[in-house]
Amino acid sequence: MTQSAPTSIEDGVLDVLKRVSRRPISPTLGSDLVTDLGFDSLQVLELIAELEDRFDVSIPLNDVPATRTVAHVVAQVTALVEGRAAV
Question: What are the strands, taking DSSP E only, across the chain?
Fold first, then answer.
């Protein structure tokens, strides 16, 4: 199942965020993963693994510390999905 439209990627990322969170959350594009959503480092790694499985991409671990907001996550996944489609 290939998702390439930005809205479907955004919806997919929001869905994964809600599943990985250990408490009910209402993430928005401006939400900070740690400050606003309460994610710890283990949850961030779980999020990466879930996103990689859902979108069939590989997220470089070097990029993780710079990824702070939901918008950053969506942008990164979108770039990876579009890059895969261009190959």
Answer: none
pLDDT at 71: 96
Radius of gyration of the chain (CA): 12
- Please, what is the average pLDDT of the chain? 89
Q: Is residue 45 within a helix (H) or strand (E), and if so which, with residue range?
A: helix 41-55
Domains (range + CATH), the chain: 6-81 (1.10.1200.10)
Calculate mean pLDDT across residues 57-67: 87
Taking CA atoms, 79 is separated from 72, 73, 82, 85, in Å, by: 11, 10, 5, 10
Q: CA dist 48 to 24, 38, 53, Å?
A: 19, 16, 9
d(CA 68, CA 70): 7
Mean pLDDT across 30-39: 95
